[in-house]
Write a structure and sequence with these properties.
Blueprint lengths: L1 H12 L9 H12 L3 H14 L4 H13 L3 H14 L3 H13 L3 H14 L4 H13 L3 H14 L4 H13 L3 H14 L4 H13 L3 H8 L28 E5 L4 H7 L3 H7 L2 E6 L4 H7 L4 E4 L16 E4 L3 H5 L17 H12 L5 E6 L9 H4 L7 H4 L4 E5 L6 H11 L3 E2 L8 H10 L2 E5 L2 H9 L3 E5 L20 E5 L7 H15 L10
Parallel strand pairs: 1-2, 1-4, 2-3, 5-6, 5-8, 6-7, 8-9, 9-10
Helix pairs in contact: 1-4, 1-6, 2-3, 2-4, 3-4, 4-5, 5-6, 6-7, 6-8, 7-8, 8-9, 8-10, 9-10, 10-11, 11-12, 12-13, 14-23, 18-22, 22-23
């Protein structure tokens, strides 16, 4: 989505220049900016600014150019200089986009609101405000704003698309599907609309149709930075006697989940090269010893280049489209990742030193502001009924800084949560710790994927509108037989989920043999 925001900064804001001697340079710069010739655009706008220092149009368009080039500090400085000369809705909207690119959603919302104070029918500001409110976890507030934008411009593609996203988050999946269909009527090649429609189909369990739409992700603007190779893309052809490169894509959780398809690839191909996030390299190398595992590099020549050119390439996220088109295609595996035995032994010794009781790992916050963190997260206060269980030792599996929260729980409530943040910064260490625990209780985050891939018994607290991989309903998902889902019934309300987990935990902790329940 980042590149889409960058493109929007310029697409929404371009305007005809005013002035006299500057017109030639400004018009030439705008033409270059429209054509994506950023260096030429920068040169023309700089010439206009040199001819008329402090000119609003030159500052504004040069700021847009720097934003599109990814030079956010320079862009903000130029746009703020333009704002000092004219309190303009377009400038506030562009500055809002700069803040959004930095993940500063509160500042972005303030910028869009100021733009709308100056121009209540500024379509771009309406669309961007709605999207940012949705990202803040408030799709109900976002929808009226986006619907207002659609009343002003019924065929505005961004307004339609963002309204679909907000509709998805409120649970109105059918309305979202219709809106995405309208986007595709207007722009048949809108890759993000296809991808979102794929997510809706996958959530319903319509895997065959869902993967076809999901394949459009490769055409989305954010994929432009991916290196392109000339090797044929694997579409399910026989791999007998062939070599295949499995390429890394997306985040840690995605790579762990898609790795569930690797055993089948390895069983068919003569040779398999696996590319993955550096944090997973050790774990993957141990888990798939027949493959050559290399760390993914964002730039420069890939580490696997000395290998012989493969017969096929396939992105990890494209493997399910070949191998998982029906629920029956998902194997009832007993874990496909293999933790380091020495590390597991060390963690078991450390956990044993905590004293009697179940050793339970917990993670309570997942995602980022752009990946629905608000919907996927809860607080330790909310977890108190679970954390107060006397027969358990709780261990933090939280990946982000949480020491202050943990200290607050100990001081206010006498609740102890053991934390070794330095020890679990590495995924191989995390895998060993998870494998050593009796149970994991988590929100939808990488910890859930890791637990499922290790076949560790894990209970996942799932928001009412879940990510596509968790499906629309059910207490299990085909990716990970060891996971049990506890689904939220009302958005923002976790009490029923906590009560259900608490009751199950009391029963589970008091049942002989609980420690041997891993799938």
């Amino acid at each position: 989505m980042l590149w889409t925001v960058i493109k929007r900064i310029t697409r929404e804001a371009l305007r005809a220049p005013d002035g006299d001697l500057r017109d030639g340079a400004l018009k030439a710069g705008i033409a270059c900016l429209n054509a994506g010739k950023l260096d030429d655009a920068r040169r023309h706008f700089s010439e206009a600014l040199a001819a008329a220092p402090g000119n609003f149009d030159a500052l504004f368009h040069l700021g847009l150019t720097e934003a599109r080039s990814g030079h956010l500090d320079a862009a903000q400085q130029l746009l703020e200089a333009a704002r000092a000369r004219r309190d303009d809705a377009g400038v506030h909207n562009a500055l809002g986009n700069i803040h959004r690119l930095r993940g500063q959603l509160d500042a972005a919302v303030a910028g869009y609101r100021r733009a709308l104070e100056l121009d209540g029918e500024h379509i771009a500001a309406l669309v961007n405000l709605g999207l940012s409110l949705r990202d803040q976890g408030d799709p109900e507030q976002a929808l009226p704003i986006l619907e207002h934008a659609l009343r002003l411009a019924p065929d505005h593609v961004d307004a339609l698309f963002n309204t679909a996203l907000a509709s998805i988050d409120t649970g109105a999946s059918e309305a979202a599907y219709v809106l995405l269909g309208r986007v595709l009527e207007l722009d048949a090649d809108h890759a993000e609309a296809h991808t979102q429609r794929g997510f809706l189909l996958l959530r319903r369990g319509d895997f065959a149709a869902g993967w076809r739409e999901y394949a459009w992700r490769m055409r989305a603007p954010d994929w432009g930075a991916q290196a392109q190779y000339s090797y044929p893309h694997w579409q399910g052809e026989s791999l007998s006697g062939k070599s295949v490169l499995v390429r890394a894509e997306q985040g840690l959780g995605d790579q762990i989940m898609f790795a569930s398809c690797l055993p089948e690839v390895l069983s068919q191909a003569r040779h398999t090269v696996i590319e993955c996030d550096p944090r997973l390299a050790g774990l993957f190398a141990r888990s798939f010893p027949a493959a050559a595992v290399y760390r993914y590099r964002v730039s420069g020549e890939p580490d696997w280049l000395p290998e012989q050119a493969p017969d096929f390439q396939v992105h990890g996220g494209s493997l399910p489209g070949v191998l998982r088109n029906r629920t029956a295609d998902f194997p009832r595996h007993r874990g496909y990742l293999v933790p380091d035995p020495a590390r597991v032994a060390a963690w078991r010794a450390r956990l044993a030193a905590l004293g009697p009781g179940l050793n339970i790992g917990i993670a309570w916050r997942g995602g980022t502001p752009r990946t629905r963190q608000a919907a996927r997260s809860l607080t330790l206060d909310t977890l108190l009924p679970i954390l107060s269980l006397p027969q358990a030792n709780f261990v933090s599996l939280q990946y982000d800084p949480s020491s202050d929260e943990i200290t607050t729980q100990r001081v206010r409530h006498g609740v102890t949560i053991h934390e070794w943040p330095q020890k679990i910064a590495d995924m191989d260490e995390t895998a060993a710790l998870v494998a050593s625990l009796d149970l994991v209780i988590t929100v939808c985050t990488t910890v859930a994927h890791m637990s499922g891939a290790l076949a560790k018994t894990a209970w996942v607290m799932v928001p009412v509108v879940a990510e596509w991989r968790y499906l629309e309903r059910g207490v299990t998902i085909p990716w990970y037989p060891a996971l049990r889902l506890f689904r939220q019934q009302r958005r923002g309300e976790w009490s029923d989920v906590i009560a259900a987990v608490h009751a199950e935990l009391q029963d589970w902790a008091g049942t002989p043999g609980a420690r041997t329940r891993d799938a």
